[in-house]
Here is the input.
Amino acid sequence: MTRARAAVLAALDGATEPLSAAGVETRLAERCDQATVYRALHHLEETGHAESFVLYCSEHGVERFYVSASAPHRHWFHCETCHRFVDLGACRIGGLVADVERELGLRVSRHTMYLSGTCADCSAGRPGADGSARQA
Here is the structure.
């Protein structure tokens, strides 16, 4: 594995929430340029070291987010006001997936679930993670 790929994977492994390519690039500071980050993320996903999902945000549009494949499977809530992710915990829809497989004769290899809306802090008008006041 190249140093750039290892650095990108380390950034994903150390993250507490999904990261966009820009988020990975920010964490790596000056060690990798944008093109290298994108190539590394693509390679890591192709080789099973990373997983991604596409999220639509009313402010930022469509963006792909990445997580380390070695992390436990999680579901996420995305705040459309402060753009933070809230970890919803371990998978809660495994039973539903099993029902769908059984009823329709499918074999589900993976699934992604995220919810979007406004987090509790933004709903209450409390300052966000960056200290700025949020609009309610």
In short: The domain at 1-69 is CATH 1.10.10.10 (Arc Repressor Mutant, subunit A).
